[in-house]
Amino acid sequence: MLKGGILAILAGALFLFAGIWVGAVVAGHVRPAIPTSPTGPHPSFDPLQADVEQLVQASGAAVGVTLIELGGPSPGTWSYDGDRSFVAASTYKLPLLMMEAQNVAASRWRSRDSLCYQDSDEEDGWFDDYQDGTCLTRGELEMRVGLYSDNTAAHILVRYAGGGAALDSYAHAHGARESAFFVPNTTTANDLARLWADEYAGRAGGRAAQQLLYPQLTHTAFEEGIPAGVPATAAVVHKVGVVDAQVNDAALVRNGPHGDYVLAICTEAGGGEAGWTLLADISHAAWEYESSR
């Protein structure tokens, strides 16, 4: 019985091997094995760290930077003072527009909803056509907020969404753990990057929401920051925040050298042109690093 059992096992193994071999033959050709290659460890972020440190020291600015790689071999995360708190300025409009897109995509809200202005919504901004009785569609307000960072339009959307507490609750649920976006209006580079990473992963409404959100934040009126540091082949979906000495930018960079990545930069220095230049230079350093890995 033992000998017969062993022979049966050997025969079964040969039959299985033959079946695997035959299954690999298609139209007279042996199907090639799928090549596999280990991704290996992530290359050091030291070159990027050195470049950013040099830029920061030369600028004299307070800076927070966070990079989250979304593609390529062994994607990683790096930050420079990523938990440092800054004035959020208009970057609060990133979670606001994420929330808008998610709710419209889910049919809880509609782009054609009519939302009306109140005097309490007023703040200097891109548009000055608001007056008592002015009503615009939700879609029109979203485009004003995304493309032109209009403050009054953003205040209308925040009010209809339930106020600053509702905005902060939404942002916290999508990764912004250190921010108080609307009041007192603070954030970190890490929080802004986590918001984009969560949205990219599909946890803020998925593709349907992205199809609404991305056009609102592409080719905006403010392209001097992160977009200025990457080639024209890249598509940059981003939200800036500028007030006084503060110049911030939080971006999803598409079509990078090794896939998409998130880059968030917060700066506090002299503001103005120097701030935009610093953003562009750090963005370029990140692109060069991504190209080398």
Describe the structure.
This protein has a single domain (46-292), classed as DD-peptidase/beta-lactamase superfamily (Beta-lactamase). It is globular and about 55 Å long. It is an alpha+beta fold. The N and C termini lie far apart (61 Å). It has helices at 2-23, 46-59, 93-105, 138-148, 151-161, 164-173, 189-200, 206-216, 272-292, and strands spanning 25-26, 29-30, 62-69, 77-80, 86-87, 114-116, 135-137, 186-187, 235-243, 246-254, 261-268. Helix 2 (46-59) runs antiparallel to helix 9, helix 3 (93-105) crosses helix 8 and helix 4 (138-148) crosses helix 5. The strands form 4 sheets. The chain has a 5-stranded antiparallel sheet with strand order 4-3-11-10-9, sandwiched between helices. The chain has 9 helices and 11 strands.
Class of secondary structure makeup: alpha+beta
Helix content: 40-55%
Question: Please, what is the oligomeric state?
Answer: single chain
What number is the mean pLDDT? 88
Structurally, the number of domains stands at: 1
CATH fold-level assignment: Beta-lactamase
What's the end-to-end separation, in Å?
61 Å
Largest sheet strand order = 4-3-11-10-9
Which value, in Å, is the CA radius of gyration?
25 Å
How many DSSP-defined strands?
Answer: 11
Largest sheet: 5 strands, antiparallel
What is the general shape? globular
**Low-pLDDT stretches:** 1-38
Give structural attributes.
single chain, 293 residues, alpha+beta, Beta-lactamase, 43% helix
Topology:
Elements: H1 2-23, E1 25-26, E2 29-30, H2 46-59, E3 62-69, E4 77-80, E5 86-87, H3 93-105, E6 114-116, E7 135-137, H4 138-148, H5 151-161, H6 164-173, E8 186-187, H7 189-200, H8 206-216, E9 235-243, E10 246-254, E11 261-268, H9 272-292
Antiparallel strand pairs: 1-2, 3-4, 3-11, 5-8, 6-7, 9-10, 10-11
Helix pairs in contact: 2-9, 3-8, 4-5
